[in-house]
Amino acid sequence: MSGAVLVAVAAAIGNLLQGWDNAIIAGAVLYIKREFKLESEPTIEGLIVAMSLIGATCITTCSGGISDWLGRRPMLIISSFLYFLSGLVMLWSPNVYILLLARLLDGFGVGLAVTLVPVYISETAPPEIRGLLNTLPQFTGSIGMFLSYCMVFGMSLMALPNWRLMLGVLSIPSLVYFALTVFFLPESPRWLVSKGRMSEAKKVLQRLRGREDVAGEMALLVEGLGVGGETSIEEYIIGPANEDIEDHDTSADKDRIKLYGPEEGLSWVARPVTGRSTLGLVSQHGSIANRSALGLVDPLVTLFGSVHEKLPETGSMRSTLFPHFGSMFSVGGNQARNEEWDEESVDREGEDYQSDGAGGDSDGNLQSPLISRQATSLEKDMVPTAHGSLSSLRHDSLMQANGGEQVGSMGIGGGWQLAWKWSEKEGQNGKKEGGFKRIYLHQEGVPGSRRGSLVSLPGADAPTDSEYVHAAALVSQPALYSKELMKQHLVGPALVHPAETAKGPSWNDLFEPGVKHALVVGVGIQILQQFSGINGVLYYTPQILEQAGVGVLLSNLGISSSSASLLISGITTLLMLPSIAVAMRLMDIAGRRSLLLTTIPVLITSLLILVIGSVVKIGNVVHAAISTISVVLYFCFFVMGFGPIPNILCAEIFPTRVRGICIAICALTFWICDIIVTYSLPVLLKSVGLAGVFGMYAVVCVISWVFVFLKVPETKGMPLEVITEFFSVGAKQVAAAKNN
User: Fold this and answer.
1) If pLDDT is split at 50, 70 and 90, which confidence band does 474 have?
2) Which controlled-vocabulary keywords does the entry list (predicted)?
3) What is the rounded CA–CA span in Å between residue 191 and residue 199?
4) How far apart are CA 456 and CA 260, in angstroms?
5) Which is more confidently placed, 303 or 278?
């Protein structure tokens, strides 16, 4: 996974520049005021600081849609160029108006980086370490702030500090970032698949994962193109085909799904059962936690929780469900494996099949469906066509026909398995209608009274007892299912190439129940984060440390008040780094939801102590000590939870097709709330005082904890496509409950 890690580190440099910019202006504005004589012009002084916020807010309104159109990588390149250009203009700045323009350009770069870096990392990272990698922007941002404070502090000790040099230094790291975005960062594979550029997406995935076989994840990315659709929660018992799967609830043999191993003659069978899986029980009846909360807990939270309670202990990218299964695209015998997605040509009923993606934003020679079509009648066994590469699926492939049913199964990370099944039902005219169903399988926990835990596969160390897997499943239509093609008796899990159905995001997609549900979570947590008090505590920190005697100590060392303020801010930022490192470690172990529920109470306690310290008169030394400890605890636990997690969640919970637009909505909410909190703080301090402000922040943190408990699901270790499928299921359950 080193490829994905290096790409995430390079992308996170955009947030390092954002942190650098935030800190540098705090020090430079002290000297800008003197040169331009702005002591009597507080509005202009405020604009110099705020122009970056204004620029970020403006660019965010269109960044999501443009990134869905142009791609993630071009927007990061533009962001790095804007950083570089703004640094040069600030270095020149002959007057305050040019400086304001430079700050606006800088804000554009900040807005693009803050909005798109989490999305880019989420779309390139493997599920098992996605949380860790998406905490990198918070870490690098804090590093940028610390380095900036150190540089400004050092320059403030000079006889004539040069604020232009302070601001212009930004162009040096931004030039490094520009080079990385142009020459090192690949395009997001999910965006490439959404545009039908399968060959490029495959090469990027191979580079990111460090292996040749990426067929499973490629198929997953295609399935993630859908928005909405009917999804059901089912349950299967899976075992060797020659074993008797003992279960009185199993359906008839005609309903079974056969799974084939990589060697001829080795097969496995899955039979649907009812009323057993944790996931299924939760979806139908709700959980104990749900009922104990008087039905207030979102069913979606319970659904996600039921999965994580039974998550198999594995750090592998491959699923534990079928640990020895090869790829669905394996070629039998000793024939070399060939997964060239862009070099097939399949005839359809005697006509040359040409993909619509042959031009425009698709590869010029892309002329094949995603998974080769198999020319066969619905009533007959599948007979592979005589083509090379993907269509050379032999009898021992993972995709075979048995009694009208066939399935391909692949690990997609996080203990999940991707499969398809063929199903038929009676149509309105009495004729059988068939179609493929996509299945996301997840192994259920196996109680001790049951036999075995994993399918016993040849070559594995397995007990002699008969074994089977109890698996929950999300079953829905494939993303590229086409009824028109089914009339021609063509069979394949993905019947149409993505380039044929590729389309940009639609505003109508935002009103799909699962997307609306995710927007409520994303927008809600962004609002609560901004009003949880971080800006107020940052504002108050220098005063707290001054009371603790730090200012006096620095003064005795000959450091001026301005330099002391910068040094104190640098020390405060330095305290954040170890806590963020801990959060990076815990993000994929404890999980996002658990970290929030654990860290928010510490924020509440710290704020209440600050309120009490402001109201109750105690000794100066004791007050300074208690306040300092409270502030340090607040910072450390904020950056472990409420700091990085809102952006991580927002980058995970939206479908690929509308992810850019939705993340832009959440980011716009972030910037608007940031502006409101920043400029309302002085007013609130005058009207309700420091104790009142911290009291309000404590109330918001209490509301935040309740919101997280009721509405925010746990997404650790789950593929993005599975997360969005869960949101769709949960939203429809909520709607059904309201209707009933």
Assistant:
1) confident
2) Membrane, Phosphoprotein, Sugar transport, Transmembrane, Transmembrane helix, Transport, Vacuole
3) 13
4) 13
5) 303
Q: Among 351-355, 519-523, 679-683, 705-709, whose mean pLDDT is lowest?
A: 351-355
pLDDT tens-digit series, residues 16-43: 999 999 889 888 888 898 899 888 888 8
Q: Please say whether the beta carbons of 494 and 478 come within 8 A.
A: yes
- Counting Cβ atoms within 10 Å, is residue 160 exposed (0-12), middle (13-18) or buried (19+)? exposed
Give dist(CA 248, CA 132) in Å, integer. Answer: 44
Do 110 and 18 meet the contact criterion of CB atoms below 8 Å apart?
yes
Q: State how far the Cα of 89 lies from the Cα of 106, in Å rounded to an integer.
A: 10
Q: Which long-range contacts (CB under 8 A, 24 or more apart) does 45-50 make?
A: 47/100, 48/96, 48/99, 48/100, 48/103, 49/25, 50/675, 50/678, 50/679
Query: Which one, of 276, 277, 257, lies nearest residue 268 by Cα?
Result: 257
Contact call for residues 627 and 606 (beta carbons, < 8 A):
no
Alpha helices in 617-658 (DSSP H): 620-640, 645-650
3-state secondary structure 408-460: CEEEEECCEEEEEEEEEEECCCCCEEEEEEEEEEEECCCCCCCCCCCCCCCCC
Confidence (pLDDT) at 129: 94
Judge whether residue 392 has pLDDT over 90.
no
Residue 235's nearest CA partner among 439, 448, 477 is 439
pTM, two decimals, is: 0.81
Rounded to whole angstroms, how far apart are CA atoms 32 and 9? 34
Residue 362 pLDDT class (50, 70, 90 cuts):
very low
625 vs 545: CA distance, rounded Å: 9
DSSP code per residue over 215-271: HHHHHHHHHTT--S--EEEEEEEEEETTS----TT---GGG-EEEE-SSTT-EEEEE
Ranking 199-203, 228-232, 248-252, 558-562 by mean pLDDT, the lowest is 248-252
Asked whether residue 597 carries a pLDDT value surpassing 90, the answer given is yes
Q: How far apart are CA 348 and CA 339, in angstroms?
A: 21
Inter-residue contact 649 to 712 (CB < 8 Å): yes
Domains of the chain: 1-185 (1.20.1250.20), 228-243+253-274+437-443+468-478 (no CATH), 506-739 (1.20.1250.20)
How many whole angstroms separate alpha carbon 302 and alpha carbon 34?
Answer: 58
Nearest to 599, CA basis, from 701, 456, 464 = 701
Has residue 199 got a pLDDT over 80? Answer: yes
3-state DSSP of 308-332: HHCCCCCCCCCCCCCCCCCCCCCCC
